[in-house]
Design brief:
179 residues, extended
Amino acid sequence: MNNLPLVAPVFPAGKEPLPPGISDEERDAFLQAKKYQDYMTVGMESCVAKTIIAGGGGFAIGAFFSLMSSSFAYEDPLLRQNLSTQQKAREIFKEMGRGMYRSGKGFGKVGALFAGIECVIESYRARNDMVNPVAAGFVAGGILARNSGPKAVFGGGLAFAAFSAAIDLFLRRETADED
């Protein structure tokens, strides 16, 4: 080993020191796991993966909210009075499924739109600060309100930007030190 001060040690590729608790016999498995971990890291840093994950998560949350809210839905007993119990249950479940799909699709669209725009803005600016979610919220809110006229586009953008800022401020807050 080199005893020169402030000189980083140089190791041949594949012969770097292993973390504590890993033997030389486990080196290949460790390097393969590290390789897959690096693939996952690169994938998670891509805007496409972030958009797909946000869209899928939004769809799942929207469907779950719709499922929960359908339990509070008022069911008119006279609406399906000439159907058997099994037919009524089938119709109710079909209606719940349609509502879950509709709500999930809306939440997924909003999540994917916001996450994709935020990732593109963050990649372009090469910074991770409060400007990214606010700008992405403004653009996404404007896109979502595009069919309602220019005032609605501006108002939707402002509202979504304010909501994004509030959520991001809440998520980025410092936790209190417990001494």
